Amino acid sequence: MKLRDRGLAVFVIILWGINFTVIKFGINEMSPMLLVTLRYIFATLPAIFFVKRPDTNWKYIVAYGLAVGVGQFSCLFYAEYIGMPAGVASVVLQAQAFFTILLAGVLFKERIGAGQIAGLIVACMGLILISGSIGAQGGGTVIPGKAFLLTIIAALFWGISNIIIRYASKEAEEQGKNLNMFNMVIWSSSVPPIPMMMAALIIDKPVQVWYQLSHINVLALFSILYLAFFATLIGYGLWSTLLAKYPASKIAPLSLLVPVVGLTTAQKLLGEKLTTIQWIGGLIIIFGLLISNFSNLLRNTCFKNFGKSKI
Length: 311
What we know:
The chain is mainly α. Helix content is 76%, strand content 0%.
């Protein structure tokens, strides 16, 4: 990768890592369902009037918007609202990689390698440790069980959204088209606002929603704009640009650095503290992801070098 592109990749990782702390700022000022609604309103407007609709079927645009906006982020925002630490959320959400692997194995009949299974088992051990169910004492941040479960469900929806993109990309390729992910993000962002606003009106009641909108403060506005423009449009825009220039095997693993930024930011800005066991659990999850992502590459490299040595 060129030095400039490496810098852009690091910039995106920082944006996405800080994202979890910004969510916590936002939900301290307004209800999580309303925050999701406003995030996607600002992410899609006015950009949708200047960006061409992605060259794919509407069913994929709608399904992707529902999976990410309604499924993933409503669960994540509400999880943080009821006590999920921002830093831990940045780690646990990476379980999406394993949901993606499992779903791809079932739906696309892709072979799940031994290394991927090993990585899944290792990461599950890490999840048990970071959840606080073992060694919860020691002054660390308490993680409510419901909040932890909602974050896992958010990761599942992220995995589902990845599969939707796989279907959309595969169909576009068969038709000789190219799926532009930046355009996909903007147009799919038009899907969540209506169902999420309905959820906000049901959960928070119309009077409370109106009060929050009419009394919005600077911190809430900052959170909305950061989530819409920096985390969504700029983050996905730059990331999709890098994916278009380089093989996915070079770009995708860099996202494993997001939890490092997420944990550090939450510790510095929110004062979140984890027990030693929880820190170990986070490291084990990242180690499991590394095993899953690089096991095939390492095996192929070893076989290649072994073959050369025979010659």
